[in-house]
């Protein structure tokens, strides 16, 4: 597929915590382990050098995303989506759905 990968250890501890994927010289996606537990918890996707999507595992334990930020082709923020059931079905968050999700998290 013509992709190349650069592995990085941002903490300089020889543990890879960031992988950058390139198509030629253009960054197309990034995967990160932000809390050094060995599981990915952030995924960034680029189109034409513009950030289009950032996904997060807000639990820092599941290893797959349950929140995402979406951006338009110019890199401007569009919306936040959530997958509260971790089933791959993302819904757009607005003030009401965010409040419902926060109530569920407090139980």
Structural summary, described in words:
The structure is a single chain. This protein has 107 residues and is mainly beta. Helix content is 11%, strand content 42%. The protein has one helix and eight strands. It has one helix at residues 95-106; strands at 3-8, 18-23, 26-32, 42-47, 50-56, 67-71, 77-82, 91-92. The chain has an eight-stranded antiparallel beta sheet, with no helix packed on it. Strand 7 (77-82) and strand 8 form a beta hairpin. The radius of gyration is 15 Å and the shape is flat. 6% of the residues are buried. The mean pLDDT is 89.
State the share of residues found in helices, binned by percent: 10-25%
Strand order of the largest sheet: 1-2-3-4-5-6-7-8
Content of β-strand: 35-45%
Summarize the main sheet.
8 strands, antiparallel
Q: What structural class should be given to the helix and strand makeup?
A: mainly beta
Which oligomeric state applies?
A: single chain
The run of helices and strands is EEEEEEEEH
User: So what's the overall shape?
Assistant: flat
Mean pLDDT: 89
**Low-confidence blocks of residues:** none
Please compute the radius of gyration using only Cα atoms: 15 Å
Based on DSSP secondary structure assignment, what is the total number of beta strands? 8
Terminus-to-terminus distance = 46 Å
The total of helices stands at 1
